[in-house]
What we know:
Layout: H1 3-29, H2 36-57, H3 61-73, H4 75-100, H5 104-125, H6 132-152, H7 157-173, H8 180-205, H9 215-239, H10 244-250, H11 253-265, H12 272-291, H13 294-309
Amino acid sequence: MNNRTEQQAGVLYAAFSYILWGILPVYWKLLHHVNADEILANRVFWSFFFVAAVLFFNKKWSLFTLTMRGLAKNKKQFAALAVASLLISINWFIYIWAVNTDQMIEASLGYYINPLVSVLLGMVFLKERLTLMQYASFALAGAGVVIMTISYGQFPWIAVSLAISFGLYGLAKKLIKVDSAVGLALETLVVMPLAGIYIGYLFFQGSSSLFAGSWTTSLLLAGAGAATAVPLLYFAKGAQRIPLATLGILQYIAPTITLILGIFVYHETFSMTHLLAFTFIWSALILYSLSRTKLGTAMSVRWKKEKEMHM
């Protein structure tokens, strides 16, 4: 397979993964009658066993056990793994809860903001430098958040919590250099015992929806593992084949699909205030994306030179 064909395949894999993430709320809506904490516990529990099966059939189980032994000896990486597991669990819980309480529009806002939060975290923790255009994109996104806060009298904590938890998760993942499928197996393994205990507790309390309610609900809860892992595995296949800039543009597919579902399928309210706030944030993303192109880099260099001349 030549480089061009490889990149085309990468775009298809990555786009498919983002489409799956975009329509995933439909899956959680099918479980609207189940509490978010029980859905999360099943998502974590069955994700581990699904990914473990994938590793076994792809002959990567030895890599998994080898990586696990290495992390056990490296306290810094093990701590990063534990933090990543906690953050992604928090992110999943907030997202499931938001979807099943008819707040998909705000959830989509969180994933539009996320790339900007990730850059900000890189600046704070990794000492990465920002360009003038990137600073401007933060100002625009901040204005969008302020508009929603003032209009509704409350801070859009769902959107911001999703963006920050996923941004911090990405930061923690930078410290763990492992295969993506192995990484997901390890992350879910850390919290899987707690998830299993909670599922067992609900079952013996007589309040479990797994294997105690309808067979459809049980299948959907057990299938949450595959619903979680399949997009991630396709994302990994795509990310290996295409440039980071292309991946950055494709990532807006998921929140856009979620936004469309929220408005046109589940009929959530999308007011003029929403439109104004989203316009600021979309403008921020366009500016941020432009800053990562050759034109954006050239403009930043020119601005820096002019600044130095006037000093």
